[in-house]
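pls ignore typos typing on phone
pyridoxal-5'-phosphate + seq
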Amino acid sequence: MNRNDFPILNEKVYGKTLVYLDNAATTQKPQVVIDALSDYYRRINSNIHRGVHCLSQLATNEFEQAREAVRQYIHAASTQEVIFTRGATESINLVAASFGRTYLHAGDEVIVSEMEHHSNIVPWELACEDRGATLKVLPFNDKGELMLRELETLITERTKIVAVAHVSNSLGTVNPIEEVIRIAHSHNVPVLIDGAQAVAHCPVDVQALDCDFYCFSGHKMYAPMGIGVMYGKAQWLNEMQPYQGGGEMIKDVTFEKTTYNELPYKFEAGTPSVGDVIGLRKAIEYIGGIGLANIAAHEQELLAYTTEKLARIDGMRFIGEASHKTGVISFLVGDTHPYDMGVLLDHQGIAVRTGHHCTQPVMTHFGIPGTIRASFALYNTFEEADALVDAVVKAKNMLS
Ligand code: PLP
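k done
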């Protein structure tokens, strides 16, 4: 599927054609995105919003058109609800800090799940520490599925927010976020969804989901690094205190009393990464050209095919066997250390990730130091899946 759009896939590592299966960490970029970046810097590089001159207006137009493209992509009600950040991490930190400062008080509670990326744990720990609140944890079972029934008992009248991943980056689990949101809302508790591992793999409709916040990174959806999105319902964003202070986020500044800009600018202090925002729009158009449904179907076929072939290897242990998964396969082989396996795969030209994948509580749950993780994107092929399986067998033989 459209492999030639991605120049890096023709690169060689150790003289072998690159087999890139580290897409949950970051995806490769199609030529149209690379071109959009250099085009921006060649043609219209300029600071936005404040300029009367032509370049500034051109750059501002493109920047705001990208915001509209994001709005359509996630079906937000308004561009006022689309805040540009540096990535999912910054988006979640923004919500934890601003929401925390506005609504969290001593004795309140925040719920996260046991399978969260550190980006959806540590910002809440910081906010709880700051406000004297308590962090509570929604567990998952040994298949890697959330134990949803526990949510009803975890939520109390002191619960202020629930923060859960749409898709787990280390288990591949697609969480039943509709159900999480329904349960939380039935107790009038808002929900933040960490969509970092979902936006490039399944359609997202924030209005249909009715989530209160939805956070993601551009670089995991074929866009440049350094750009992300925090979607928030206007009702929250209007009330929440700003995250950072500086240019652009203000209406009037005096030493006595500063007033803040309207949405979305209230949460966009300083000069944004304009070129990367424009690149994000190109990536959205690129995904749209192929169709998310087609991408999802292809990745599901790769997931089923590769899982079935890996399962035939003696000593194979999958970490994360939820019934609803994206194209993420975490595994261990016999008693080989994931790092050793990762190095031997790398020498065969296969790029996978090894370690805890920034989800140490998941590793603690299974009592393991880490996993080997292969993760798919739209350009991966069945030949690459075969190459992975062959390389794992070879590495296993070398290590045992
Ligand atoms: N959340 C999840 C589920 C992730 O997988 C990641 C990155 O791997 C993040 C958050 C953080 O994303 P970023 O490093 O792009 O901010």
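The chain is about 40% helix and 15% strand. The first helix runs from residue 31 to 43. more later
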